From TrEMBL:
InterPro entries: ADH-like_N (IPR013154), ADH_Zn_CS (IPR002328), CAD-like (IPR047109), GroES-like_sf (IPR011032). Residues 34-129 form the Alcohol dehydrogenase-like N-terminal domain. This is Alcohol dehydrogenase-like N-terminal domain-containing protein. The keyword Cell inner membrane does not apply. Belongs to the zinc-containing alcohol dehydrogenase family. Its cofactor is Zn(2+). Keywords: Metal-binding, Oxidoreductase, Zinc. One of its GO terms (biological process) is lignin biosynthetic process. GO terms for molecular function: oxidoreductase activity, acting on the CH-OH group of donors, NAD or NADP as acceptor; zinc ion binding.
Length: 193
């Protein structure tokens, strides 16, 4: 959701090398575009995908990496062309944040296969050429929205272990050691007060 550039100042917890140790990291993301939604991230989960990228398990991580998987937050700003979201909306963000919206895959709701390239929330490159540094991995937009709507309508809630951001390194270690009963969710909003 965040990339380097000339926008808002941001704070995340980043791995700076393959040790995967996370520590506070200040950076800027690009300026809000006409079609963009700026989300104040309040929570994100931790899973093995975060271990893979933070600890360079595939050998292609681009540091610094601010892991964060399945982001939740509140819309803080919207670009002038945005109609679906408004300031104050509670939203979730998955693995990718943009696509061309016009190729055959995008038209078939398969944005993750976009011919011009999906923009992933971290370890990737945004359409403006800036590098994205935070992120997630999940399914297609339409199916995820249907699942979230179904869960909300039927009052289905996940079992989670809510943790402060300062516990992130221990959470990654526990994921590696398979010492996890519920998904970790980082309470970013209250951790940074």
């Amino acid at each position: 959701m965040i990339s380097e550039g000339v926008g808002e100042d941001c704070l995340g917890w980043a791995a700076r090398d393959a040790s995967g140790v996370l520590s506070p990291y200040k950076f800027n993301h690009r300026a809000l575009g006409s079609d963009d939604v700026y989300v104040k991230i309040t929570h994100c989960d931790v899973c093995y995908a975060d271990v893979i990228w933070a600890r360079n398990k595939h050998g292609d991580s681009k540091y610094p990496v601010v892991p964060g998987h399945e982001i939740a937050g509140v819309v803080a700003k919207v670009g002038p062309n945005v109609q679906r979201f408004k300031v104050g909306d509670h939203v979730g963000v998955g693995t990718y944040i943009n696509s061309c919206r016009d190729c055959e895959y995008c038209n078939d709701k398969l944005e993750n296969h976009c011919v011009k390239g999906s923009v992933y929330t971290f370890n990737g490159v945004d359409f403006d050429g800036s590098r994205t540094v935070s992120g997630s991995l999940s399914g297609r937009t339409k199916e995820i929205q249907e699942m979230v709507d179904f869960c909300a309508a039927n009052k289905i809630y996940p079992d989670i272990e809510l943790i402060p951001i300062g516990y992130s390194n221990e959470a990654l270690d526990r994921v590696v050691n398979k010492d996890v009963k519920y998904r970790f969710v980082i309470d970013i909003e209250n951790s940074l007060k």
